[in-house]
Amino acid sequence: MINQLAGYFDQMAAIIRRIEDKEIFREKDFASLLGDKNHQIYFELISFFPQLIRDNRTAGSLMISDIGEDFSMAVSQVLAQDNIAMLHLLLYYMDRGIGDCYDQMIGFEDDIEVCDALNDNYHDTDIIILRKVGCRWEMRQPGKGLNGLLQNFYYIDQNRLDGMRLRNYILDRTAVMRSRKTSLKIAVSPITRKKSVEFSAPYEGVNGRTGIPQKLFRVERVLGEKLITDQVIENIHIAGAKETDILVFPEMLGTEEMLCKVMEALESDWKTNVPTLIVFPSVWEKTENDLANTNKSYMILNGDEVLFEQHKRCDYKYDTEGGPVYEDINRDRDKNNILNVIHVEGLGRICIIICYDYLDEENQERIMKNIRPTLVCTPSFSTGSFHFKTLAEAFFKQSCNLVWCNTCSAAHETDKDRNFEIIGLVTTLSKQCEQFNPNSFERIFEGKTKCGRENCKNCIYYAEIPLNRDSVKTGEP
């Protein structure tokens, strides 16, 4: 990034950190200041930043030449005064004053930009500043705190992430959405009802933090790998032919070899349409002495590149008479503690949260309240559906839709067939939703005990999230 812009965002981060450390932001208090155009604070700020605040109190549109050393020194002087009200007002104008300049200076050379933050001082301030992207189904939400003051950018306080780090992928909308589309088309593919995962018996390991022995389990291998590979490739092509934008597969049914074969197949048949974003079946990889086992999904972009790998970060457990048995991943909890977030204008923020990571209350709240995704893709290998169903609409207040894809293969790990009446769902919160029609808020997909299928070949379900008030929402079985 251009040095002046990075420095500008460093100053915004320093202001935010100061405000966060001093007091809780009160919208009512700031509104009173914003409404008093003749308050002394305005005159002081105009004397410091005449190019930022016009005489009529609207925000000036800054150029790179405006944000050099003199501007930086002026910000330092305001910070030194430690006047929280003045810092609120300065932040308000800095956010609005730099938006056009940022958009002009930052272009999409490769359709993708990758960054941890727009500011360089996030290690010192623990504040991450990012460009705010709009979401077509986003609803007005009161009480956004200090972030509600910002119009063009938003921030994340790393102190609230409990060590989790972010990797941000800013995608050009034209690289994700076909022009003039009036809805986002989503598909989920449970793939198979056959037993496909071989789990280990419980074994004893040592907790890396306490040094105390505890029971663990691992995935030994994926069964019927060739059949699953062929089905994944075929379902990608079918979903692509139906102009699907996002396709989500389940958890644990993938392997590294499968990923290579799928990518090779897509590359050799590059003229065929494929979904823009594909959440690959997660890969459970065991390592020597189980020291670095992982469970990770891959986000594939346009069928020709792996955009990122998303690790499962919470350890699933099941209970036995001898005590709980934990999924043996993440012995080094800091190594893969990264959440990848896609930012797309019109769609907002998209991320993968694998199965139990979505059910773990602390992890869920941490992500939802601080990262504020607008679309969560959740590949799953679950013996139950109740919690996913009840939590599906939990974050509508934050305009977040959920895509949950389970697999009927998991039915082999339980005797509760009723748990597989539902095998997936897509919430469809939009500005077309009808308050008295619950079906307008979600599509629910039937599993093996209700779907009536003879086999699972080409098992794909579809849903659409309207992007306009007047677009037509359709669905396919």
What is the mean predicted local confidence, pLDDT? Answer: 92
As a percent range, the share of strand residues is: 15-25%
CATH homology superfamily name of the largest domain: Carbon-nitrogen hydrolase
Low-confidence blocks of residues: 471-477
- Gyration radius from CA atoms, angstroms: 24 Å
What would CATH call the architecture of the largest domain?
4-Layer Sandwich
Please render the helix and strand layout as text.
Elements: H1 3-22, H2 27-35, H3 40-48, H4 69-81, H5 84-97, H6 99-105, E1 112-115, H7 122-125, E2 127-131, E3 153-157, E4 165-171, H8 173-176, E5 183-188, E6 197-199, E7 203-206, E8 213-217, E9 219-222, H9 225-241, E10 246-248, H10 256-268, E11 277-279, E12 283-285, E13 294-301, E14 305-311, E15 317-320, E16 323-327, E17 338-344, E18 348-352, H11 356-359, H12 361-370, E19 375-379, H13 386-391, E20 401-405, E21 422-427, E22 442-446, E23 461-466
Parallel strand pairs: 4-17, 5-10, 8-16, 10-11, 18-19, 19-20
Antiparallel strand pairs: 1-4, 2-3, 5-23, 6-9, 7-8, 11-13, 12-13, 13-14, 15-16, 17-18, 20-21, 21-22
Helix pairs in contact: 1-4, 1-5, 9-10
